[in-house]
Design brief:
The protein is an alpha/beta fold. The chain has 3 domains: 281 residues, Ribonuclease Z/Hydroxyacylglutathione hydrolase-like (Metallo-beta-lactamase, Chain A), CATH 3.60.15; 148 residues, Rossmann fold (3-Layer(aba) Sandwich); 92 residues, Ubiquitin-like (UB roll). The chain is 31% helix and 26% strand. The strands form 6 sheets. An 8-stranded mixed β-sheet has the order 9-8-7-4-3-1-24-25. The protein is globular, with a radius of gyration of 28 Å. The N and C termini lie far apart (63 Å).
């Protein structure tokens, strides 16, 4: 350690939003920090962006890749590791994960053709060094196996990064939270806690997974036809709970959805679900009597390509539901998904299918801490500084207030891109850095705010017009054609003719210097054609001009 060393925290995803987590910790003198990354996740488009998968832009750390010492994954949820296959080539650092998380990630990396990524399996509760950081994993509970808090020790103090967590006295899968380790860490001294804010508005506790078993068994017992249960595929404890409810009612479990199969395989490969009978492949669903099958399926958030949505619209090749069947939504509504879920539930109603949500009966418990659990965490860790993450701004502010009420001396509300100096001295935001978003567009990763996607959005709302204008060697306009996508129908011949005439007039009326310059002439035609659409249709289409010079040469 040198006299100039400082300890920094920088969220590039997951602070000011729920999901898409990317956190950086820097240690060293200014300009010579070494960096540790914790989590690298994705979120999914709500339809506002013309892509399916969205992730943080790692440009800040990509520019400092030679100083990136490693990536520690807290657990296997998509919003914490889903971006690794897309972004690892830009970062190329060692990855540290516990066995279940490493198993899930390994499937993803192999599918992406990245078989040689250095994923180092570390044991639950282990302690190891990633210079200059001393790392300890502390077991917590969550809606997936092996959720870990990460204690990051440095000469300037220890940071406790919680990841996603709760205190569940009976989590069904895996051990309970290691409160003794948290208390020891608090006794040792915690400089700062970077903590989950998802349920900061929920009073009391989030509830125990074990408490759902009796409730789900009773609901399934009251169903006469087929029963489908939808939940997050990664919630292995919930898969066990649902399987137990099925067995108690003499039903076999059919798994519908590729992600369910992946998680089942990863869980069994790492020692989980040993007492659960193997799930039946969806191709065999039709061979079981309606009252002897439970269909476990993906799609609780209304995802259009997930199994439940395809079942509800009659597009699933193997599974169908009909009048008298029931669907149990064993999940909560993630903000932003309300419309998609309502659409899915309307499709189920059209089939005569009854559905049950957590508003109707106890069918779900959250994997995130409510206010009493947050208070208990602060009592155990006793940090000097609180930095809320994993929440929208309203969550972060409310969490900061709760932390102050727990006698935490300093609470810093930092959204994505806020560089926080944790020490030495008082914690404060010292700089704002770029914290953009990337989207997966087909097989490539592109900036979400780039011109290509902006043009696509404009084309979606305003259509596309392509004008081809032939100009002969003397500068006189010849053949002119217009192709309009998403703008015109059979009633719009007058608008089409007006746009073509405007293109011709733009050439005829252009002064000689403009007519001689391809770029200027294209722009004159583009403006003229676009003006027609604006005046006649109140649209501003993405407009391209194809200029063909006399003799067949293209301008």
């Amino acid at each position: 350690m040198t006299r100039d060393d400082e300890l920094l925290f920088l969220p590039l995803g997951g602070a000011g939003e729920i999901g898409m987590n990317l956190n950086l910790y820097g240690f060293g003198p200014p300009g010579r920090h070494r960096w540790l990354m914790v989590d690298l996740g994705v979120t999914f488009s709500d339809g506002a962006a013309p892509v399916d998968v969205i992730m943080p832009d790692p440009a800040f750390i990509e520019e400092r890749r030679d100083k990136l010492v490693g990536l520690v994954l807290t657990h296997a949820h998509e919003d914490h590791l889903g971006a690794v296959p897309y972004l690892w080539e830009r970062l190329r650092c060692p990855i540290y994960a516990t066995p279940f998380t490493a198993e899930v990630l390994g499937h993803k990396l192999r599918e992406a053709g990245l078989a040689d990524v250095p994923v180092r399996r570390v044991a639950l509760g282990s302690r190891f060094r990633i210079e200059p950081f001393d790392i300890e994993l502390i077991t917590l509970t969550h809606s997936i196996p092996e959720p870990n808090a990460v204690a990051i020790r440095t000469p300037l103090g220890t940071v406790l990064h919680t990841g996603d967590w709760k205190f569940d006295p009976d989590p069904v899968v895996g051990p309970t939270a290691d409160e003794a380790a948290l208390r020891r860490l608090g006794d040792e001294g915690v400089l700062a806690i970077v903590c989950d804010s998802t349920n900061v508005f929920m009073e009391g506790t989030s509830g125990s997974e074990a408490a759902l078993r009796e409730s789900l068994q009773g609901i399934v017992a009251g169903c006469a036809g087929r029963v489908a249960v939808t939940c997050f595929a990664s919630n292995v404890a919930r898969l066990e709970t649902i399987a137990a409810a099925a067995a108690a009612n003499g039903r076999d479990v059919v798994a519908a959805g590729r992600s369910l199969r992946r998680i089942e395989q990863a869980a069994r490969a790492t020692g989980y679900m040993r007492d659960v009978a193997p799930f039946i492949d969806e191709a065999e669903a039709g061979f079981f009597p309606r009252d002897r099958v439970l269909i476990l399926c993906t799609g609780s958030q209304g995802e259009p390509r997930a199994a439940l949505s395809r079942i509800a619209t009659g597009e699933h090749p193997n599974v169908r539901l009909e009048k008298g069947d029931a669907v149990i939504f064993s999940s909560r509504v993630i903000p932003g998904n309300e419309t998609a879920i309502a659409r899915l539930q309307n499709d189920l109603v059209r089939l005569g299918v009854r559905f049950v949500t957590w508003n109707d009966a106890p069918v779900h418990v959250s994997g995130h801490p409510a206010r009493d659990e947050l208070t208990h965490m602060y009592q155990l860790a006793r940090p000097r500084i609180a930095i809320p993450v994993h929440g929208e701004l309203r969550h972060l502010v409310a969490h900061a207030e709760l932390a102050r009420g727990c006698q935490v001396a300093e609470a810093v509300v930092a959204e994505n891109g806020a560089l926080v100096r944790l020490g030495p001295g008082r914690a404060e935001i010292v700089e704002r850095v770029h914290a953009g978003r990337l989207g997966v567009d087909g097989g490539r990763v592109v900036p979400l705010d780039g011109e290509m996607l902006r043009s696509r959005v404009r084309a979606f709302y305003n259509g596309v017009a392509v004008v081809t204008v032939v100009v002969d060697a003397d500068g006189r306009v010849g053949e002119t054609e217009l192709s309009a996508v998403g703008l015109l129908d059979d009633r719009d011949k007058g608008t089409r003719d007006a746009a073509i005439e405007a293109a011709r007039a733009a050439v005829d009326d252009a002064p000689p210097r403009v007519r001689a310059d391809d770029n200027q002439l294209r722009e004159a035609v583009r403006v003229a054609v676009r003006r027609v659409f604006r005046n006649r249709l109140a649209k501003k289409p993405v407009t391209h001009v194809h200029l063909v010079r006399g003799g067949g040469d293209e301008g």
